[in-house]
Amino acid sequence: MKNCIKIKFTDFWPGFDKENNMFVHFLQNYYQVEFSDDPDIVIYSCYGFDFLKYTCSKIFYTAENVRPDFRECDYAFTFDYPDYSNRNFRLPLYRWRGDLDKLIQVKDAEKIVAEKTKFCCMLVSNPNGKERNLFFEKLSKYKQVDSGGKHLNNIGYRVPDKNAFIAQYKFTLSFENTSYPGYTTEKLVEPMLENSLPVYWGNTLVGNDFNTKSFINIHDFASFDEAIERIIAIDSNDDLYIQYLNQPYFKNNVFPHELEFKTIEDKFIEVVNTLLHNKSVTNGFNRWYSVGKMIKKKLISKVTKEPLWYC
Question: Given this model, what pLDDT does residue 261 score?
């Protein structure tokens, strides 16, 4: 008989499935999971302050480029490489996908080239990425970059099927909203899964996870103009394009051990077991710190129109 664990998910993004996600699946292998408003552990993200209602142990997870605040959480799963005195584990957002095994399959490069009927695409809703906006403008001087999202849309409609749209294109602009070491979201792997060559900017250490010879890593170039020169050369030479396609997405075509589901599960369960048997380090913390932080963020958000997590 499995022991019961009471958990609460809060302050996650809209549409997050609180009863069917990676963390829940991990827990169900060891515990009888109960979703409760009187939890043993709260797992929260960066989109609100509901977590302040609870005095139990807290695990922070972020899908955004924000740092953990260990005055508010006991442990964190973030994009960050540092373990912050053994209180953080790196879990980039793209790892939530369950289909990444496709990225180690052998590609038929010549068949892929024959299927690519269009130049380059972009799918973006957030207008605030100034680097992305600038690169889009610069590359568009060579050929039109088809933008099928809400931002900079130039095809006349919002794309209903992201994967099918990307699959038509030789290149996909894969810019993160911001740049930070370790910060890689789904924006890189989505075009990889459709064999569209990513033009990537964001994680300056992306080579730790991926083989940078398999895509255009803008961080490898001295300037945007130099990167665009490379894109033009690849676009003009199918043999060069095939060279990129023939490269494995991961080093030696092996998925990074530290991002295997079993590795993540073992760490997550280790953290949960530790928290269940130890008093939360946040229990005695001055609540007014978090309340002041919340008020400040809400005021900044109101003035700047930026989301709370960004402030």
Answer: 94
